[in-house]
Amino acid sequence: MRAMVYRGPYKVRTEEKDIPRIEHPNDAIVKVTRAAICGSDLHLYHGMMPDTRIGHTFGHEFIGIVHEVGSSVQNLRVGDRVMVPFNVYCGSCYFCARGLYSNCHNVNPNATAVGGIYGYSHTTGGYDGGQAEFVRVPFADVGPQVIPDWMDEEDALMCTDALSTGYFGAQLGDITPGDTVVVLGAGPVGLFAAKSSWLMGAGRVIVIDHLEYRLEKARTFAHAETRNFLEHDDIVVEMKKTTDYLGADVVIDAVGAEADGNLIQHITSAKFKLQGGSPVALNWAIDGVRKGGTISVMGAYGPLFSAVKFGDALNKGLTLRMNQAPVKRQWPRLFEHIRNGYLTPSDIITHRIPLEHIAEGYHIFSSKLDDCIKPVIIPSES
Questions:
Q1: How many CA atoms lie within 13 A of 137 on its CB side?
Q2: DSSP 3-state of 111
Q3: CB–CB of 259/280 below 8 Å?
Q4: Where in the chain is the domain with CATH 3.40.50.720?
Q5: Can you name the CATH fold of 162-322?
Q6: Are 326 and 296 in contact (CB under 8 A)?
Q7: For 325-340, what is each residue's pLDDT tens digit?
């Protein structure tokens, strides 16, 4: 089969790999029909995440058709059209029993924190991802779900991570009616977090970024106010000014490890790997939220130290909530919103790229070329 293969920072290409095989009776092999490049894939692409090994195939957002099932699989049949959450999880451990699918205790021997994630380095279990023609799906009776007949396949694709994560980010904000919500980052997760904030009762939603084409999308797709942090001497001061000098009720960090805005922080994290990620966005959140407010962190950070203003968070009495999204837990409500027309997730897709051109796709997305917001990979039309 053809698959995206990592060859080192900023080096990916399409190569031949063996079609994955059934390794456990509850595995399925899925023929991928659509995959996506996620903003967090760029952290791998840029060499930010530890233990990203040569030969690894990325891609934690994918849908496809069941090609083969193991002998104990009961819920899927060959030919089913399925959507697969980015979490690999067993469904029965202490954490899965509590809905914490992203913290499954049985799928990642390399960590005591995060569970398994498709295509996201050996830090999250070393599972090959879906930017390929085929992918092995463990615990096939637990994670994948047959795509409803009424759902567009690209809407389903967005549910496998970006939409579910953005929605989860708004959930973690504990938004109450009338709250002012600030979203840091106008990438796909930030856009979905902003849109979801309205569904949870926000009275005002403000999105902060520095790329005008993404801010325009925040205005048209998420119906949010926007601020370009490059146009302000101090974006935290602007956040205070626009909220009667109190600060926002909720701030959602949808940026993560490679935040711009502070050259020293960016260089020490993104270039020299001295931090688990640039803490710029998180520190803006701590400074810009009101006392007693809530910060929701959806941006991906590495496991290393980051220079976060924890003392300020303590003294302001802030609530910080964060996790990798337990994707399937969000689906019942999201399916309702999509079916009722409140959400059309595929509206954020800007590029559709053949698998053979995936290196160019990563370059376009990483370099923010051609107003790229969300690229979708098409492994095969057959």
A1: 33
A2: coil
A3: yes
A4: 162-322
A5: Rossmann fold (3.40.50)
A6: no
A7: 999 999 999 999 999 9
